Amino acid sequence: MSSVFPDDSVGLVSPQVMTFSEPLALACGRDLNGYQLVYETYGELNAARSNAVLICHALSGHHHAAGYHSDSERKPGWWDSCIGPGKAIDTRKFFVVSLNNLGGCNGSTGPGSINPASGRPYGADFPVVTVEDWVNSQARLADALGIAQWAAVVGGSLGGMQAMQWAISYPQRIRHCLAIASAPKLSAQNIAFNEVSRQAILSDPQFHGGHFQEQGVIPKRGLMLARMVGHITYLSDDAMGEKFGRELKTDKLNYDFHSVEFQVESYLRYQGEEFSGRFDANTYLLMTKALDYFDPAAAHGGDLARTLAKVEADFCVMSFTTDWRFSPARSREIVEALIAAKKNVSYLEIDAPQGHDAFLMPIPRYLQAFDGYMNRILV
């Protein structure tokens, strides 16, 4: 490993591409005729092929979960605090697979990809995908990698929903499910936030009905607003207050509607600006809809315990006290349903002031619990 990287880093990593020619039947009733998934791997698959761990990403995540793509990259993968030698997901023990989901904008087939039927970017013509669709595509990736069973499927937020769906859809192919800062379905409030974000994008004049790529533009303002709304929900009130308070960016008030006067305003605008330059608007619409549609208990009249009756995996569920987007109460719903279904489940509610984004942060108590559970699962 190059000395420029920390000792507990996986170091330099390269994305890989897996191409699938067999059509994938989607929940929306359409088929995706051929697609590719971009993924990264860390660690080595053992001879028994029993040490594989799948990482599922959240709304704006991607395949680059750990390590660096170049010697000059300043920021490592999005979950580098948890993946690497000696970390919770220890790459000396586990073979870790992290992918960019279908519909994404980081290399996997999505709205920005060329539609073979038209020769133009899919844009708004890309089919709506669900968490179940993602899990089915991930199962094909596992097949291609020769992984018959995951030691664990792990994810936070929307990633936790995918981990749960794995345990439901493929009960014999997953030994442990780790659902962190997640929920069994979205609340009406969460769906409402997603709808506001979508409307910000859909009403942007540069959206062009989802075919903005052909026009050579992006709906930047809509994406900025969507990210600003989303980002507010990822942080707790305490975290916002501690980070920004009512601090002014300028020396005095300007008494107008256009100046950036408060530090929190500056922060949100920066986040929106940065996001609009790297994320696809159609992908944002798809990801939020996948969140809205996730409701595995609906197959059994809303009875989550019945839905979980056939799972074989042991569960680890973790939540954070100040997460109001996916509150601890929502994690406890999962735990109570698992207990009712007589399944093995460990639950930890972590006292953390950071809000929903806490699952991405190196909080000592969280990492200790995460590491403790992962140390139990190798056979």
From TrEMBL:
Residues that bind substrate: R227, D357
Signal sequence coordinates: none
Taxonomic superkingdom: Bacteria
Pfam families cross-referenced by the UniProt entry: Abhydrolase_1
Primary localization class, coarse: cytoplasm
Compartments, record wording: Cytoplasm
Gene Ontology MF term list: homoserine O-acetyltransferase activity; homoserine O-succinyltransferase activity
Quaternary structure annotation from Swiss-Prot or TrEMBL: Homodimer.
Family according to the record: Belongs to the AB hydrolase superfamily. MetX family.
Known pathway: Amino-acid biosynthesis; L-methionine biosynthesis via de novo pathway; O-succinyl-L-homoserine from L-homoserine: step 1/1
UniProt KW keywords: Acyltransferase, Amino-acid biosynthesis, Cytoplasm, Methionine biosynthesis, Transferase
The name this protein goes by in its record: Homoserine O-succinyltransferase
Protein function: Transfers a succinyl group from succinyl-CoA to L-homoserine, forming succinyl-L-homoserine.
Keyword set includes Zinc: no
Catalytic activity line of the entry: L-homoserine + succinyl-CoA = O-succinyl-L-homoserine + CoA
NCBIfam families per record: homoserO_Ac_trn, PRK00175.1
Catalytic residue positions: S157 (nucleophile), D323, H356
Organism listed in the record: Pseudomonas kuykendallii
GO biological process: homoserine metabolic process; methionine biosynthetic process
One of the record's GO cellular component terms: cytoplasm
Spans traversing the lipid bilayer: none
Family matches, as InterPro entries: AB_hydrolase_1, AB_hydrolase_fold, HAT_MetX-like
Residue ranges constituting the AB hydrolase-1 domain according to the UniProt record: 51-360
EC number, as in UniProt: 2.3.1.46
Taxonomy of the source species: Bacteria, Pseudomonadati, Pseudomonadota, Gammaproteobacteria, Pseudomonadales
UniProt-annotated site: Important for acyl-CoA specificity, residues: R325
